[in-house]
């Protein structure tokens, strides 16, 4: 659990109370939470979130070292391709990427949105797309999400591409 | 239905934003064997654990007094216990995310 507050003394008091009710392990200043590493610079008022370790784990798990890009097909056409896809952890990879997206990589949101649509019947090309996202993460895994000092106000953004899908003429929208 | 709240990513993001902007302290703690703290609302029995069965009474079962890991309701019972503690100490549960106090 994370404890946050203005004064160390109040937090220490809460720690005491918690300790007397349950047996607790004090992990000191928060460093890791849900696969994210927290780095702070109190002078600069910044807080960095990094998922480098998580990405390394994911890359390791889906082993993309031998990845090559293939030509794009929309659906698996023959039995061969269908058999190939049977052995591919498509949904797992999607899920792993989705966590990275939600936590510290909002920039892959559009790509994840695309590959997730083919979860029910993925083809080779979709798997290749996933691999290229994984390779993108491999290249950028050292990057952090940085929270800084600024006015604390809630801002919303949204956009839509107005029938941007060439196959279905559906629109893709997003908000942050 | 057995439901136990889990923290939302948006809650964490907002928390981190506040941390950075207001220069708040942030500590982390872990409850040892958290799920064993939960109390049970129902009568539950289990087979005697292998190797620990009382000789001559192997046909008997154990009645659970507390929650155990692996029980369906373990996370929920632990949440209940922890929530009661937080409320007792003057915290309020957030409407947006029940795992934020």
Detailed description of the structure:
The complex is a heterodimer of chains A (176) and B (101). With 176 residues, chain A is of the alpha+beta class. Chain A has a domain at 51-143. Chain A contains six helices and eight strands, in the order E-H-E-E-E-E-H-H-H-H-H-E-E-E. Chain A has helices at 8-21, 52-62, 79-86, 90-103, 109-116, 124-140, and strands at residues 2-5, 24-29, 32-33, 36-41, 46-50, 145-147, 158-160, 173-175. In chain A, the strands form two sheets. A four-stranded antiparallel β-sheet of chain A has the order 3-4-5-6. In chain A, strands 7-8 form a two-stranded antiparallel sheet. In chain A, helix 2 packs antiparallel against helix 4, helix 4 (90-103) runs antiparallel to helix 5 (109-116) and helix 4 (90-103) runs parallel beside helix 6 (124-140). Chain A is extended. Mean pLDDT of chain A is 84; it is low at 67-73. With 101 residues, chain B is α+β, with helices and mostly antiparallel strands. Chain B has one domain (9-88). Chain B is built from two helices and three strands, in the order H-E-E-E-H. Chain B has helices at residues 9-22, 74-88; strands at residues 25-31, 45-47, 61-63. Chain B has a two-stranded antiparallel ribbon. Classes of the chains: A alpha+beta (176), B alpha+beta (101). Strand 2 (24-29) of chain A pairs antiparallel with strand 1 (25-31) of chain B, so a sheet runs across the interface.
